[in-house]
Protein backbone atom coordinates (compact mmCIF):
# COMPACT_ATOMS: atom_id res chain seq x y z
CA UNK A 1 0.00 0.00 0.00
CA UNK A 2 2.91 2.32 0.80
CA UNK A 3 4.27 2.02 -2.76
CA UNK A 4 0.85 2.85 -4.24
CA UNK A 5 0.63 6.03 -2.15
CA UNK A 6 4.14 7.06 -3.19
CA UNK A 7 3.35 6.25 -6.83
CA UNK A 8 0.17 8.32 -6.70
CA UNK A 9 2.04 11.27 -5.13
CA UNK A 10 4.69 11.04 -7.85
CA UNK A 11 1.97 11.10 -10.52
CA UNK A 12 0.32 14.13 -8.89
CA UNK A 13 3.64 15.98 -8.85
CA UNK A 14 4.33 15.08 -12.48
CA UNK A 15 0.85 16.25 -13.54
CA UNK A 16 1.42 19.55 -11.72
CA UNK A 17 4.73 20.00 -13.53
CA UNK A 18 2.99 19.34 -16.86
CA UNK A 19 0.45 22.08 -16.16
CA UNK A 20 3.23 24.60 -15.52
CA UNK A 21 5.56 23.50 -18.32
CA UNK A 22 5.62 25.62 -21.45
CA UNK A 23 8.03 23.85 -23.81
CA UNK A 24 7.09 20.71 -25.72
CA UNK A 25 10.49 19.08 -25.19
CA UNK A 26 10.16 19.32 -21.42
CA UNK A 27 6.52 18.25 -21.55
CA UNK A 28 7.59 15.18 -23.51
CA UNK A 29 10.13 14.22 -20.84
CA UNK A 30 7.65 14.74 -17.99
CA UNK A 31 4.92 12.84 -19.87
CA UNK A 32 7.39 9.98 -20.38
CA UNK A 33 8.04 9.84 -16.63
CA UNK A 34 4.30 10.01 -15.98
CA UNK A 35 3.71 7.13 -18.43
CA UNK A 36 6.13 4.96 -16.46
CA UNK A 37 4.63 5.97 -13.09
CA UNK A 38 0.92 5.57 -13.88
CA UNK A 39 -0.96 2.45 -12.79
CA UNK A 40 -4.09 2.43 -14.99
CA UNK A 41 -4.11 1.89 -18.74
CA UNK A 42 -6.34 4.91 -19.19
CA UNK A 43 -3.88 7.26 -17.47
CA UNK A 44 -0.92 5.60 -19.20
CA UNK A 45 -2.70 6.12 -22.53
CA UNK A 46 -3.21 9.82 -21.76
CA UNK A 47 0.46 10.22 -20.88
CA UNK A 48 1.63 8.37 -23.99
CA UNK A 49 -0.70 10.42 -26.18
CA UNK A 50 0.73 13.61 -24.66
CA UNK A 51 4.18 12.24 -25.49
CA UNK A 52 3.01 11.82 -29.10
CA UNK A 53 1.64 15.38 -29.23
CA UNK A 54 4.85 16.90 -27.84
CA UNK A 55 7.52 14.69 -29.45
CA UNK A 56 10.09 16.63 -31.42
CA UNK A 57 10.60 14.15 -34.28
CA UNK A 58 8.67 11.46 -36.17
CA UNK A 59 10.52 8.45 -34.72
CA UNK A 60 9.77 9.67 -31.17
CA UNK A 61 6.16 10.34 -32.18
CA UNK A 62 5.86 6.82 -33.62
CA UNK A 63 7.28 5.19 -30.46
CA UNK A 64 4.89 7.22 -28.30
CA UNK A 65 1.96 6.22 -30.51
CA UNK A 66 3.01 2.56 -30.21
CA UNK A 67 3.04 2.93 -26.42
CA UNK A 68 -0.39 4.50 -26.45
CA UNK A 69 -1.69 1.67 -28.66
CA UNK A 70 -0.24 -0.95 -26.31
CA UNK A 71 -2.13 0.45 -23.31
CA UNK A 72 -5.26 1.73 -25.05
CA UNK A 73 -8.16 1.15 -22.65
CA UNK A 74 -10.82 0.69 -25.36
CA UNK A 75 -11.40 0.38 -29.10
CA UNK A 76 -11.80 4.11 -29.61
CA UNK A 77 -8.42 4.74 -27.96
CA UNK A 78 -6.87 1.95 -30.06
CA UNK A 79 -8.12 3.62 -33.22
CA UNK A 80 -6.75 7.03 -32.15
CA UNK A 81 -3.38 5.47 -31.34
CA UNK A 82 -3.26 3.50 -34.59
CA UNK A 83 -4.07 6.68 -36.54
CA UNK A 84 -1.28 8.47 -34.66
CA UNK A 85 1.06 5.62 -35.59
CA UNK A 86 0.10 6.01 -39.25
CA UNK A 87 0.54 9.79 -39.12
CA UNK A 88 4.05 9.50 -37.70
CA UNK A 89 5.34 6.44 -39.58
CA UNK A 90 8.74 7.19 -41.05
CA UNK A 91 9.45 4.08 -43.10
CA UNK A 92 7.78 1.09 -44.72
CA UNK A 93 8.09 -1.07 -41.62
CA UNK A 94 6.43 1.58 -39.45
CA UNK A 95 3.69 2.07 -42.05
CA UNK A 96 3.05 -1.68 -42.04
CA UNK A 97 2.90 -1.76 -38.20
CA UNK A 98 0.44 1.14 -38.23
CA UNK A 99 -1.72 -0.61 -40.85
CA UNK A 100 -1.71 -3.78 -38.72
CA UNK A 101 -2.81 -1.76 -35.68
CA UNK A 102 -5.57 -0.11 -37.71
CA UNK A 103 -6.72 -3.53 -38.93
CA UNK A 104 -6.74 -4.97 -35.40
CA UNK A 105 -8.80 -2.07 -34.05
CA UNK A 106 -11.12 -1.65 -37.03
CA UNK A 107 -14.74 -1.20 -35.90
CA UNK A 108 -16.28 -2.64 -39.07
CA UNK A 109 -15.57 -4.51 -42.32
CA UNK A 110 -15.11 -1.34 -44.32
CA UNK A 111 -12.38 -0.12 -41.95
CA UNK A 112 -10.81 -3.59 -41.96
CA UNK A 113 -10.75 -3.54 -45.77
CA UNK A 114 -9.04 -0.12 -45.87
CA UNK A 115 -6.50 -1.27 -43.27
CA UNK A 116 -5.84 -4.49 -45.21
CA UNK A 117 -5.24 -2.40 -48.33
CA UNK A 118 -2.75 -0.27 -46.40
CA UNK A 119 -1.07 -3.41 -45.07
CA UNK A 120 -0.75 -4.74 -48.60
CA UNK A 121 0.63 -1.43 -49.91
CA UNK A 122 3.25 -1.19 -47.17
CA UNK A 123 4.14 -4.88 -46.81
CA UNK A 124 7.93 -5.25 -46.63
CA UNK A 125 7.98 -8.51 -48.62
CA UNK A 126 5.85 -10.90 -50.67
CA UNK A 127 5.06 -13.12 -47.67
CA UNK A 128 3.57 -10.21 -45.69
CA UNK A 129 1.78 -8.99 -48.82
CA UNK A 130 0.18 -12.42 -49.21
CA UNK A 131 -0.82 -12.44 -45.51
CA UNK A 132 -2.43 -8.99 -45.96
CA UNK A 133 -4.30 -10.16 -49.04
CA UNK A 134 -5.68 -13.10 -47.10
CA UNK A 135 -7.10 -10.74 -44.47
Stretches where pLDDT is under 50 for at least 5 consecutive residues are: none
Distance between the termini: 46 Å
Mean pLDDT: 88
Estimate the global geometry from the Cα principal axes: elongated
How many runs of DSSP E, i.e. beta strands?
0
What class do helices, strands and sheet pairing give?
A: mainly alpha
> What's the alpha carbon Rg, rounded to whole Å?
17 Å
Percent in strands: under 5%
Helical percentage: over 70%
Tell me the major beta sheet: none
Order of helices and strands: HHHHHHHH
- Counting DSSP H or I runs of 4 or more residues, the number of helices is 8
What is the gist of this entry?
This protein has eight helices and no strands. It has 135 residues and is an all-alpha fold. Helix 1 runs antiparallel to helix 2 (24-37) and helix 5 runs antiparallel to helix 6.
Please describe what this structure looks like:
The protein is mainly α and 135 residues long. The chain is 82% helix and 0% strand. It has helices spanning 2-20, 24-37, 41-54, 58-70, 75-88, 92-105, 109-122, 126-134. Helix 3 (41-54) runs antiparallel to helix 4, helix 4 (58-70) packs antiparallel against helix 5 (75-88) and helix 6 (92-105) packs antiparallel against helix 7 (109-122). The radius of gyration is 17 Å and the shape is elongated. The termini are far apart. The relative contact order is 0.09. The model has no long low-confidence stretch (mean pLDDT 88).
Amino acid sequence: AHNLVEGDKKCQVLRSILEMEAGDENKFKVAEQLFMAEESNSKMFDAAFLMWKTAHDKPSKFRAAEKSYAVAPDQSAQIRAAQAMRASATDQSAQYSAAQALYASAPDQSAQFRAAQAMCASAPDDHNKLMALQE
